[in-house]
C-alpha cells in the first residue's frame, strides 16, 4: 500500500489557504507580531504568530462556531479546503462510503481559549452561565470528533498528543488506518495556544523567547538564538491509498508519505537521529537520496546543537539544504509539523525551497540553512523532522509521486 497526499488545507499566520500561505512563505513575509488575542503587556512573552484575519463565521455556520474552540475552527476550515483540493467535496459525489473515510488529527493545547472562558463564567456568574459544550470543546479529540460529524466520516478516528511531533505521528497513524482498510484519512493538526492560560502554561517550560523585536525573536541556528515563539494555525492533509486515489480520478497527487518513524528520549534530542534514520529505512532510501530537510528548529542553542549534530551525522557538514519556514509563523506545535509536511510537498511540486526568515546562520552548526530567498532546486525527496516537549521525536519522508 502506498499512501499519497491528494489534498491540502492551510490556516497559518502567513496566510489562510494554500496559495496565499505559499506565496507569502516564498516571499519571506514575517507573521510574527505583538499578541492581540488578549492584553499580553504584563507577560514575559508578547510576540507570537497569530492568524489575524480569520473570521470563523465566514467559513462555518454560527451554530458550529458557538460550539467549538478556535483550534477546531481552524481545522474545519482547512479540512474544507483540503477536501475540495482532493476532489472529494461535496462528499455525496465522491463515491466513498462513510465508513471508508477516517479522521486522525494531532493536538497539544486543545480548546484552551474556550475552556478558560467558560471556567471564568463558572466562577464569576455561576454554573447556569456555562455552556454544555464546555464538556467537549476543550478536549483534545474535539477536532477529530467535529470533523467526523461535519463531513460524515465514520471510519477509524483518533487523536495524537505528542506536541510538535504530533503532526507527523498523526500521518504515521493515517498510514496504518489505510493499511487496515480505510480509503481516505483526514490528517494533520492545528493549534490555537494564544489564550492567557495557554501562554502561562507554555512559559513554564522556560523555552520561549522574551524578545520584543519581531524580526529577531525566533532564531534557530543563529548565534543570537534564545528561545522560540508560539503560533497558531496548521495544516490538514488528505491521505489516500495511491491506487484508490487514481482509480477515483483524484485531480492531483502532491506526493507519497514514503517513510515514518518515532522515537522517545529524555528531552535532549539524543534519539532524533534515530527517528530520521528509521524513517529513511522505512522509505527504503539512503540519506544521499534526500534533497531537502525541514528542520524542527527549536531556537535554543542546546536543542539546535543536538539537531545540527544529527543532521551532520546523517548528511555530512552542510550536506543537504535545510529549511525552517516556521521562523515566520512561530512554532505551531502539532500544527507546525503538519504545516512543514505541506511545505515539503509544495517544495516538491514547485522546485522552490522556502527561506528561513530573519536568521543569520551560525557556521559552527555546519547546517546549510536556506535564508533570505527561496532556493530553486529539483526536489523529489524531503525529510521532515519534529520534536515534542518531553522527549517525543518523529520523522516523515515525503517523495514525488
Automatic annotation (TrEMBL):
GO terms for biological process: fatty acid biosynthetic process. Keywords: Acyltransferase, Transferase. Pfam families: ketoacyl-synt, Ketoacyl-synt_C. It comes from the Bacteria. Residues 1-400 form the Ketosynthase family 3 (KS3) domain. Belongs to the thiolase-like superfamily. Beta-ketoacyl-ACP synthases family. This is Ketosynthase chain-length factor. The lineage of its organism: Bacteria, Bacillati, Actinomycetota, Actinomycetes, Pseudonocardiales.
